[in-house]
Specification:
The complex is a heterodimer.
Chain A: H1 2-14, H2 16-43, E1 46-52, H3 57-68, E2 72-76, H4 79-87, E3 93-97, H5 101-106, E4 114-118, H6 125-155, H7 164-177, H8 203-218, H9 220-226, H10 241-271, H11 277-300, H12 304-322, H13 329-334, H14 337-341, H15 345-348, H16 355-369
Parallel strand pairs in A: 1-2, 1-3
Antiparallel strand pairs in A: 3-4
Chain B: E1 2-11, E2 14-24, E3 29-33, H1 40-47, E4 55-60, E5 63-64, H2 69-73, E6 76-79, H3 91-100, H4 108-117, H5 132-143, E7 150-154, H6 162-179, E8 182-186, H7 190-196, E9 199-202, H8 208-215, E10 219-222
Parallel strand pairs in B: 3-8, 3-9, 6-7, 7-8, 9-10
Antiparallel strand pairs in B: 1-2, 1-4, 4-5
Classes of the chains: A mainly alpha, B alpha/beta.
Chain lengths: 376, 223
């Protein structure tokens, strides 16, 4: 094995930039894509300045709600700074949460809680101000409800001793529990969620596709070495070519699995995803399957251009049918066998068992055990 | 000693080699000549265990080709007609690559000396930058890494300059005499055959090569 690693290093030394490129492509592409999407989303959001004069909990909660709005990019500034940026049209509008906001809300006052500014180029002032007004109305409405309950308590002479904060907290809790307006939407392999913060892309799905492409291109050595004039020499050295190829498959599998594990840790750091054993088991299965498949494809191809072309076509087909990039729920419901037979679906579902893995392992065993046509 | 015992090779019942027997003693260089398609390369491939004979058997020392093929291969150095090297590797990397996979371990210094013995002094140069003659020398050097006792060369000097040809011939003669290697050699270059080989096997029906060699006073066997 040591000899195989040493000889492989001699090859890698020649193709180091290409090797590095294909190794980091899957993770690099996802991080790049994530960065681009985040930047695009940030650029396409309406820039709104918020000036907080009231340092109360209610005021902070209002800012948090505004922050959560998907089409708004909030900048917290001082009033002077905010108005200056508005003049320069760096902000679409400015909203000032006035001193005493919480007290006024708790008193049920709905007037002059906020001050807002817009410029002659503000295009989103009306919807943004209406959205903020609706948040304020939620707070004032909740406060008014609490006062009404306390008044009823007094009128009915009950001795519950509710506090206004308790009523408001209970009201928020009920609102969160009984929110019926949220829709459920998810990528293949992800559990249904009630989160309204939708993910626009599935990073593991996309990673798998880039990994497939990178693996195909990393295995081009096999096409080159199988068709090389050097083949004859394998008869007179310690390893038959099949053994040499298989041991190199092992070397590549270990290398790529290490890179995959690095991806797990990087994604965990970047996307805050928990590292769990089922994900790692699915990656092991996926890695073995795709390496074995690339190995078999490369060993059966005579021309490198044909191998590259077929690799691209296979990757594209998998991309279109896996549900990793575009939703394929309709396709899967019309062709249910596709979800059973598709090589990527088990990985996206976080499963180890994959019929393709077993098929690939079986074919490699048959290939290795088959008697050579050559007398060698 | 290599003993070829009455071998026949046929493709689709058409005989290429019929009832061929000869022996090669240590220190001997045997030339194989004949017109194109006469079966020189086929015979060399049979001797290299790359093809089985249809009939008959071959023995290297006491080992039968039929029963001890894997063991025999450890003692064979085969120099294919196509240059079998990694073009993107340096001479050093090529030698190291095949040494790592070889039956015999050699130090880098020994590998370099092997190349220098045949005037291949471009140790750190990429193979694709070498001249045809240098590539042929590297092709030969790789085949000698595991110190084979039987060296089979399929037109090892085709298409190279006279100086490189002479250097390779000189090296092979030295190898046969000093190291008592058995060498079987195919070539179309009759001057080379006449100068290098101790005995010549004429393969095929064309008397052209036989006549030429008789004039040079070589010991000839025809098949």
């Amino acid at each position: 094995m040591k000899a195989i690693i040493q000889t492989r290093f001699l090859h890698w030394k020649q193709q180091f930039p290409a090797l590095l490129f294909w190794l980091i492509l899957p993770v690099g592409a996802i991080l790049g894509f994530n960065h681009a999407v985040t930047a695009f989303q940030a650029d396409s959001k309406v820039p709104v300045g918020i000036v907080i004069e009231d340092q109360s909990t209610t005021a902070r909660e209002l800012v948090d709600k505004i922050n959560e709005a998907p089409f708004i990019r909030v900048k917290q500034l001082e009033e002077e700074q905010a108005l200056q940026q508005l003049k320069k049209h760096e902000l679409d509008s400015v909203f000032i949460i006035k001193e005493g906001y919480e007290n006024q809300v708790n008193r049920g006052s709905r007037n002059r809680l906020l001050t807002s500014y817009q410029s002659d180029l503000s295009f989103a002032y009306t919807p943004v101000s209406e959205m903020i007004a609706s948040f304020v109305q939620e707070d004032t409405g909740r406060a008014k409800t609490a006062y009404t309950i306390l008044q009823l308590e007094e009128q009915l002479m009950t001795n519950t001793n509710w506090k206004i904060e308790e009523i408001i907290t209970t009201s928020k809790k009920i609102e969160a529990e009984q929110d019926l307006l949220k829709a459920s939407f998810q990528f293949k392999g992800q559990a249904k969620t009630n989160e309204t913060n939708l993910k626009l892309w599935d990073h593991w799905g996309l990673w798998a596709l880039f990994s497939i492409l990178a693996t195909f291109f990393l295995f081009d050595w096999l096409v080159k070495e199988t068709r090389s004039s050097v083949q004859t020499r394998f008869v007179f050295i310690r390893f038959a070519f099949k053994t040499y190829a298989l041991l190199n498959l092992l070397v590549y599998t270990i290398l790529l699995f290490v890179i995959d594990l690095a991806a797990v840790f990087i994604f965990s750091y970047v996307f805050g995803e928990a590292i769990n054993l089922s994900r790692i088991a699915a990656i092991i299965s996926f890695r073995l399957m795709i390496n074995g498949f690339a190995f078999l494809l490369a060993i059966s191809m005579k021309k490198i251009v044909a191998y590259y072309s077929l690799s691209l076509i296979i990757t594209l087909l998998l991309a279109l049918t896996s549900g990793a990039i575009i939703p394929t729920d309709d396709l899967m419901s019309q062709l249910p066998f596709l979800s059973v037979l598709h090589p990527l679906v088990p990985f996206l579902d976080g499963l180890f068992h994959n019929i393709w893995l077993y098929m690939v392992v079986l074919i490699i065993c048959l290939w290795y055990g088959r008697k050579e046509n050559q007398y060698a | 000693m290599l003993k070829v015992d009455n071998i026949t090779k046929a493709y689709h019942k058409k005989p290429i080699i019929t009832n061929l027997s000869f022996t090669v003693q240590p220190g001997e260089i045997i030339g194989l000549v004949g017109e194109n398609g006469a079966g020189k390369s086929t015979l060399l491939q049979i001797l290299a265990t790359l093809q089985p004979p249809t009939e008959g058997n071959i023995y290297l020392y006491d080992w039968s080709y039929k029963k001890n093929r894997k063991q025999i291969r450890r003692h064979i150095g085969f120099v294919p007609q196509d240059i079998a090297i990694w073009e993107n590797f340096t001479v050093r990397e090529n030698m190291l690559f095949f040494e790592k996979l070889s039956w015999k371990k050699k130090s880098e210094k020994q590998l370099e000396q092997l190349c220098l013995d045949m005037n291949l002094d471009r140790w750190n140069e990429k193979a694709h930058t070498l001249s045809g003659g240098m590539k042929r020398k590297l092709n030969l050097a790789i085949s000698l890494i595991h110190d084979p006792n039987l060296l089979l060369l399929d037109e090892p000097t085709v298409g190279i300059d006279l100086k490189s040809k002479k250097e390779i011939s000189f090296y092979l003669q030295k190898l046969a005499v000093d190291n008592q290697k058995m060498i079987v050699y195919t070539s179309h270059d009759m001057d080379e055959i006449k100068g290098l080989c101790t005995r010549v096997l004429c393969i095929g029906k064309d008397p052209f090569y036989k006549d030429l060699l008789q004039q040079a006073g070589k010991e000839i066997a025809s098949f």
